Amino acid sequence: MKKFFFAAFWMAGMMMTPVAAEVLESYGAAQAIATADTIGRQQEKTVVSPDGMTFLKVGLKDGRPYYKAGYYTREKKEVLMVDESPLGLRADIGDFTQGLTWVEDHGGTHDISYDLGRSKTSRVDRKANDFSVRLSNAEKAEIDMEFVVEDHNIAFRYHLPKPKEAGCVRVMAESTGFRFPEKTTTFLAPQSDAMIGWKRTKPSYEEEYKADAPMDTPSQYGHGYTFPGLSHVGDDGWVLVSETGVDSRYCASRLSYAHDRLYTVAFPMPEDNNGNGTSEPAFALPGATPWRTLTLAPTLGPIVETTIPWAVVEPRFATEHKYKTGRGTWSWILWQDGSIHYDDQVRYVDWAASMGYEYTLVDNWWNRNIGHERMADLIRYARSKGVELFLWYSSSGYWNDIDQGPINIMDNPITRKREMKWLQQQGVKGIKVDFFGGDKQETMRLYEAILSDADDYGLMVILHGCTIPRGWERMYPNYVGSEAVLASENLIFNQHFCDNEAFNATLHPFIRNAVGSMEFGGTFLNKRLNRGNDGGTTRVTTDVFELATAVAFQNSVQNFALAPNNLTDQPDFVLDFMKGVPTTLDETRFIDGYPGRYVVLARRHGQDCYVAALNAEKETLQLTVDLPLAAGSRVTYYHDGKDGKTPVQEEAQVDKKGRFKFVLPPNGGSVLKGK
Ligand code: CA
Prior knowledge:
The protein is of the alpha+beta class. It is built from 18 helices and 39 strands.
């Protein structure tokens, strides 16, 4: 009898660890507890998550608002993960950082239920406890601080009611902060200078993360750090900080450099976007800021599995189109600019067709080397092969020196809509828009305008050279994913990034890819990263490592870095694996790992279940993992072979106690596949 063992494994909800189960029991089904506490001039209330384990304290001390957060141990001991941290903002309609009084508060419970469809999980059904406090400043201007507390997750934002006289607000600064306990080390990527790098296109979230860095490490460029940031609070656990719900009505933010263990929310640099546009966001009243999010837990599971980026946002518009996720080929990654002509694009369309892939991405310069007229022929050819196209555009515009085309189309609503109409008429299914100008509200307006217009013409949107997504998988029905990572192209550009490929790969599931789709564009099977597989940089990871990244990295359309030569130089089982790999998941589970060292993840798509393991350690890792409900089941096991580099596919068995032992060479990987 064929056992759908993994499906059973997932459905049984094995994610609750024995420790968590006990704590839950000892607390019973604790609901929101908001207890008032007045000590001198301090007022503080506690909100607890639905399972009773995560707590948030919100208070006012000498007129200044603050919060703290943490979890309870099984002995009901409080473990503080975010120490007393400031709240509030300073706006043209008033200062809401000090001199505040507590007007009123209320709490409640709500269900968070929605379909996600284009991410690491397809369906979310959770509960959250809400808490909102209204504060008033000396001038009697009011602000609401709104909190949502899920098990392991906290989101909060500021809502400003409409005063009689004002219709809008401009926010000058936030004092919102994140103060971590003394023992904390961090996994943070620096914000780069503005207007540096290739054709002055930065910042674009492509800097390198440092693992377990002390909090007082100066940021490389002196501009703090980008979201998301992971904090390791010693033996007490982990905190992932990010933000969500950013759209045309605010800027995207970042973290300042830490002073006294405190990182604060910082607005975009004035130099972003070639100095155009304000760094100070503004919105109509009543209105609200985006949500800042915290995921905190003693273990890394809730970090990898978090759905908080989507819990507190709503779709910005409905669509009449049916968008199809899938896999794609793209010539640019290995064959570079020289391949953007008709004949090579036909080769990559044929390559996609032979893999059964849904898409081919035609990258920059197609307008010059193929042209709109001939592109119509290429689109027809591709569609005759069952392959749909994505076409590349620059977002610019006036915010960088990019000259590879098409340029000066997507920045303007008149040219943009004219082009999108043409794309729809030709049957193009999506666009990749590259080289955005930073994080100012002006640029957030452009992202939303492109997404909204593209949906009018039935086009999906991949973003490159861009900011991280902030809840966009749920907010925009045609959003595919964003680069905003040190992506596969860097492996071509510089051997340093090849040498660090495994290190970076084992960070993403815990940090960048935990908060949103990641357009990495990876899975190279060429050993040498050039067109002829005979020059350029040298990949140091094993082939099975690369296969495992196809599972470990998530983007709803994955354009893989496979090349046509792989059709003849790879074993059939490797190609078959890549033909079957899914890009959207019904479930994602953390099994084991440590950011920057190794990671083992499980993902399910329908009845297909995968366990992917990646090793970035210098030594061979012998790792026994628990897959309790798979006990005794047969699986297909992909590994690096006896020599630690030759891919092997074999049938294997999870032992009777549900244990499976991986042997992962340095820069190596494994995948288990089961049904
Ligand atoms: Ca890039």
